Amino acid sequence: MRQPTTLSSASLLAGLRAAGEETRLRIVALLAEGELSVSDLTDILGQSQPRISRHLKLLAEAGLVRRYREGAWAFFRLDEAGAGGAFAASLAAWLDRDDPELVADRERLAAVRAARAEAAQSYFASVARDWDRLRSLHVPDDAVEAAVEAAVGEGSPGAMLDLGTGTGRMLERIAPKFGRAVGVDASHAMLAVARANLEKAGLARVELRQGDIHALPFARGSFDLVIIHQVLHFLEDPGRALREAAAMLAPGGRLIVVDFAPHEMEFLRSEHAHRRLGFSRAQIAGWFAEAGLACDLSDEVTAAGGGTSQLSVMLWRGRDRRQQGDFPLRQTQFEVA
Asked: What is the dihedral of CA 232, 234, 240, 242, to 10 degrees?
C-alpha cells in the first residue's frame, strides 16, 4: 500500500463517516488482509447479503474500497490506487489485532480461505491426468519459472501484470519483486484456484481480475512488466494480444512471453484447444516490432543435463522503445540447473 497523499477536508470527512460504523470498520480490517467477495463477507460477518452490499456501497462511494466484477461475482479490496485506500489501510493498522471481535473475524476469514484451498485441490484432482500428460511433453516447470525470474531480474517498486494467470504460479514467483502485482484470466474457475494458491503463499494482496486479454481494464502505461506465460497458443489473434499487452507498458517497460516453438502435435488442437502449434523466433519478434517493442532476448529453455523434450519452450523479452533506443537481440539456449 502506498503512503497516503493529501486529502481534501470533504474527502477526509466522507472517509471518516464511511468507516465510522462498527460493521464497516470490521470490513475495512478484513479487506486490509486481502480481496474478498460479498459472499465471503456475508459468511464471515454473519449478516445478510443486502446489508453487506449496502455497507460496501458506502465504503466505495467514499473512495475507501474498489469493486471488481468477475462474471456473476463481485470482489472488493481497499482502493490501493487512491488516497482513500491508503487512509483505510492506516485505520486498519491502528486497530488492536487482539480485539476479540477482530480475532474472531480473522478466524472465520481463515476458514473461508481454507474452503477455497479445498476447492482448488478438488479441481486439480479432476484434471490431474491430462495435466500431468501435458507437463511431461516439455521442459519441467521449475526450469521455465527460473528462466522467467532471470529475465525479470531484480524487479522494481512499480507494477507487474500477469496475463492469462491461470493458477497464479507466475505471480507466486514474480509478485514479491514488485510493489503491485495484478493477474488477469478469462476463467472464473482458474481465478478461484489462483486466489487459493496465492493466499496459501501469503500473497493475499495480489490483485486478480477476470478480463479479456484483448481489451484490458487498465490505463495505458500502467505496468513496468507484463508476462504472458503459455497463453498465446490458445488465441486466434496473438499479435493483437501482444499489442494490447505492449500498450500496458510504461516507458522502458518489459514484456516477457513464454510459449512453445513450432511443433507438429496436432492432438493439442483437437484435445486441448490449442489454436497455434508454437511460434518461431521471427514471428514473435515481428509482432513485438508492430507493438513498438524491441526484442532483446530470444531463448530456448532447457533443463541442465536433462535429456530432450518433445516440445521446445521459448522465452522472448521485448522492451518498450520510448525510454531508450534499440536493444541488441540475444539468441541463446537458456539452461537452468
From this structure: -20
Alpha-carbon distance 290 to 52, whole Å? Answer: 47
Q: Is the pTM of this model over 0.85?
A: no
Question: CB 149: neighbour CB atoms within 10 A?
Answer: 15
Q: Which domains does the chain have, with CATH numbers?
A: 9-107 (1.10.10.10), 137-336 (3.40.50.150)
Q: Could you tell me if residue 167 is left (phi over 0), alpha (psi between -120 and 50 degrees) or otherwise beta?
A: alpha
Residue 131 has a CB neighbour count (10 Å cut-off) of 12
* Segments in the chain forming alpha helices (H): 9-19, 22-31, 38-45, 49-61, 83-94, 100-135, 141-152, 169-174, 188-200, 238-247, 267-272, 281-290
Q: Is 132 exposed, middle or buried (0-12, 13-18, 19+ CB in 10 A)?
A: exposed
pLDDT in tens, 263-311: 888 888 877 788 888 999 989 999 999 999 999 999 998 766 555 567 8
- For residue 236, give the DSSP letter: S
Candidates 250, 254, 257, 264; CA nearest to 235 is: 257
